[in-house]
Amino acid sequence: MSRYLPHPILSVALVLMWMVLTRFSLGNLILGGGIATLAGWVVSRLRPKRVVVGSWSAIFKLAGIVGYDILKSNIEVAKLIIAGTRRSDRIAGFLHIHLRLTDRNALALLSIIITSTPGTAWVEYDPEEGLLLLHILDLRESQDWQVIIRDRYESLLMEIFE
């Protein structure tokens, strides 16, 4: 069974989601089942390493911080747009930050956090040097952003994943 359906929970969840998003018919059920089975095979080929959580409390703390930061950033970006401030009043730019993170899962989660926060975008990461390139809509102090990334996110991610 596991050879034909390596990730049964994922496959069932995908079929159910497919059926919710499309009209129920035998054809959609067969197509959804085929796509779900193929997705299970693809995921099994990736062979992701098993994640061992170092601190469950850090997960909840990180979730709270990220939720707060996303809400705060949404409000700040909305103010910038609604106020119609002159383009010269805000400075958008790129910023390099050295990261201590090495775990792939932690880096993936950090990229999701940064990109989910309005006004910031993960542009590039150099794994050899541990150098992250960010684009920031309202770049006031580059030091502030380094503190935000390192102290608010990276330290908790290291506690969780490393």
Structural write-up:
Helices cover 59% and strands 12% of the residues. It has a 3-stranded antiparallel sheet. The protein has 2 domains: 8-46, no CATH class; 56-161, no CATH class. The chain is built from 5 helices and 3 strands, in the order H-H-H-E-H-E-E-H. Helix 4 (104-116) crosses helix 5. The longest helix is centred in the middle third of the chain and has 28 residues, at 56-83. With 162 residues, it is mainly alpha-helical. The model has no long low-confidence stretch (mean pLDDT 87). This is Multicomponent K+:H+ antiporter, subunit E. GO terms for molecular function: monoatomic cation transmembrane transporter activity. Belongs to the CPA3 antiporters (TC 2.A.63) subunit E family. It is a multi-pass membrane protein. The chain crosses the membrane at residues 12-39.
- Taken in chain order, the helices and strands follow as HHHEHEEH
Structural class by secondary-structure content: mainly alpha
Count up the helices. Answer: 5
Note the main sheet.
3 strands, antiparallel
What number of structural domains do the residues give? Answer: 2
Uncertain parts: none
Strand content: 5-15%
| Number of E-state strands | 3
Summarize the helices and strands and which ones pair or pack.
Elements: H1 8-21, H2 26-46, H3 56-83, E1 93-98, H4 104-116, E2 120-126, E3 131-136, H5 142-161
Antiparallel strand pairs: 1-3, 2-3
Helix pairs in contact: 1-2, 3-5, 4-5
Organism: Paracoccus aminophilus JCM 7686
Protein name: Multicomponent K+:H+ antiporter, subunit E
Pfam family, one: MNHE
